[in-house]
């Protein structure tokens, strides 16, 4: 695929190839910047404003809320990533 072509100009087959290439992309982790540079967000939309079974907003019709926009955080160690992935999956599967 030409590098200057925009994603909107790709055919369905080309988009499929691009998705597969990105899914197979291997990015080795070679280190970290240590705990002084580690970040996590806190705050966000209160959990009592969201239906925990679907992650649908109780205040805004047809709005599903997931990831770091939720007032949900955990300790360092991948817990926040897992919360983002799990809430994203749940919200996406209940739409």
Give a quick set of tags describing it.
single chain, 95 residues, mainly alpha, 2 helices, 29% helix, flat
Structure characterization notes:
29% of the residues lie in helices and 0% in strands. With 95 residues, it is mostly helical. The two termini are 33 Å apart. The model has no long low-confidence stretch (mean pLDDT 88).
What's the layout of helices and strands?
Blueprint: H1 12-23, H2 79-94
What's the quick description here?
With 95 residues, the protein is mainly α.
How far apart the termini lie comes to 33 Å
- Amount of beta strand: under 5%
Structural class: mainly alpha
What proportion of the residues is helical, as a percent range?
25-40%
């Amino acid at each position: 695929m030409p590098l200057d072509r925009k994603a909107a100009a790709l055919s369905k087959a080309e988009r499929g190839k691009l998705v597969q290439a990105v899914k197979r992309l291997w990015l080795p982790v070679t280190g970290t910047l240590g705990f002084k540079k580690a970040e996590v967000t806190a705050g966000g939309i209160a959990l009592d404003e969201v239906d925990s079974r679907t992650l649908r907003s109780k205040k805004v019709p047809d709005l599903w809320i997931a990831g770091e926009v939720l007032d949900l955080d955990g300790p360092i160690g991948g817990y926040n990533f897992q919360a983002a992935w799990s809430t994203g999956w749940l919200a996406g599967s209940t739409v």
